[in-house]
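fyi for ur records
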Amino acid sequence: MTQIFPTSRCVREFYASFAHTDQLLPKALSIAEFEARSVFVPNKVLADEDTRVLLMHEAAKFKNFSQLKIEREFLSFLKNASYLFAFFEELAHEGVKIEALHIADTYANFEEHLLVLEQLLENYLQLLEKNQLYDKISLPCVYELNEDFLHQSDGFFIHLEGFLSHFEFTLLSQIARLTTLKIYLHVGVYNKKMRTLFSDFDLEEGYSYTLNLSTKEVESKQVFSQNITNADVRGFGSRFLQSAFVQEKINEFVTKGIDPERIAVILPDEKFASVLKNFDYYNNLNFAMGESFRHNPLSQKLHALDKFLRKNELEHFYRLQRLGITDEIVQRFKDVWRKKLTPQEIVVLLQVFCDDLPELKEFEIQLFRFEKFMCRIGEINFEQAMQLFLNRLDGVSVDDVRGGKVTVMGLLESRGVAFDGVIIVDFNDEFVPKRSKKDLFLSSHVRKIAHLPNREDRENLQRYFYAQLLSRAKEVAISFCVDEQSSGSRFLDALHLQAVEQFDEKSYMQALFRQKSLLPRFDREKIEGSYDLKKYPLSASKLKTVLTCKRQFYFKYIQKFKEAKIPSTHMNEADIGTFLHKTLFMLLQEQKPSDANELMIALRSKMMQYNSSLLWQFHTDIWMQYLKKFCENEVQRYAQGYEVFALEKEYKTHYKDFLLEGKIDRIDVLDTKLSIIDYKSGKLPTCSEKTLEKCVDFQLEFYYLLCKDIAEIEGVYYYPLKIGKLQAEDLFEQKLAQLDMILADLKEPLRDFEKCATKEPCKFCAYATICGRNGDV
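which gave:
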């Protein structure tokens, strides 16, 4: 009988077991290959991924599609299309119509979305039919059994791991009527649904079965256990220290006599592979997921051009320079960026860097396939073609040729394979269990009523995979991160695993980093020179730097060293604060806050007007929840008679022989009295009587001094935007007196510019490397 396994790796393991035998090898296939060869679709061609995206994009051309909150701008759509495909594929394979979801949606929470999705699916299926294509979504409705293939074997024996979809079970049932079909499966606490699926058989929990689907007989029954022994579980304060843990456990397992080829390192988050590679000094590892082609210089250059032409920002311009992309090449792409080009013209442009870079085999393969795809659709906008091709390249991986004997893989790759030693990293709630794209449009309640797999089902499936993997191993090691944002996965409790409470974490750091002699570095405890603060304008931030660290002040204000900023797609608190400040400035210039709802609408509009990126849209949705109280408070203040007196206005004043300066976020006026306001999107500065002498933040005191001669000051306030209420500063009068004392001490010119006494400020200092304090803070 032909053996059918969960993965191609299982097939290789099966054939390897015959390495020392002298006999004809039995046939073996992966379950994916078996299913693909068991069916065919007459008069239709399987649509490739690029064609699917273009057809789905075309299908989305109707008015109400915007209700899904997925942009139709091509790049945004390309990034989000996977959610749509995953959802529609699941419905098709579970045999559930969208009409059934309307019935399951008892409270009509998803009514609008379901109507839009129903229209989208109908449009998409019509486009597939029009172009004589099929895909995973339409396959269950259009396939026929490939009887020629099925009759080539004397039967099939399936080694089942996990669940079967409704379509898969139906397919296997049909095959079982044509030829002998047997299934070997385990029934445990985490896959009880198997008992429902195979209701024709009387299956009990805790047993492994061989079922003959053709004769409806149970051919064998064995006790099945998922007990895990010899597990070392540890939580680390830093994620990268897990790399040392991996190397330590590999050494330990090999010392105990385990063949390194029988050891697996499992990555719940496969992005962690890059960290393991960086610390794999002795090439112990080989990576089943390969090397992403995105790291290839050619791919990096094309990505850099794409980013620059889509968004002409300074960081993208510098990236072009760093990668050596000439102005001539940039101009060639720019001239045709939004034009429709023939497939041949597009290929010529995409090959622009090929002469400079070796080892282009994989690139040429993908370009050849892409050209064939474009020939079918004719002329296409070059911007869209570029994004489609880059999306294709991002999904390509090149085989790992490092030659290590210990295999690194994802969880799904390990299905059905028994390893003697298993090491799992990142066993955190963030990654375990893994979240599914399929859950985006429906709640677990609706899924359960509609007989769709819900979150509990998916988590149980992952529990089953982990339990199978760990119970088959002789030695097990698991690591996770422990900090303010991360903790061990709840699966640890489900699998009855206990973490080691105390161990020497520093020893892992010493093992991870190779000791190298440091190059001589110019460094002085003190720097000669002087700086008279009275001769230059003094702001609150400038004073804070002086009081925090005079060496930092020297680098920032005297040498004027600019902080090196790494280009990033992420937004930090400072970026968000800047956006909010500018948005509120635009809003309050134009809007009278008389109605909270109108103010919320205007505020959101201004926020999206300032920055329309998907990332900012995500942050906007979060911040609009916070800013609801802010809007309500603004309406209340306006009703009380407060009006905006000034926004983002700069002031200067002479005080105690110093020229103070500052830009004040906002000043309100009521009955000629001023309220000075400083917005805060993050934490508020704190000060107590015990810490008063060490206080370095005098922003509100500066604002008070800058405005006290303009009019009577009613109050000076922080405005924490997440709270939405003005807050006066504690110890304001005491801090004013403390500021006077500090200014008196600073009348003499600054000298020496020594480093700060403690290393606490160095944690977030841009100049810590120059001072030699970046490695020990």
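The chain is about 45% helix and 15% strand. thats all i got for now
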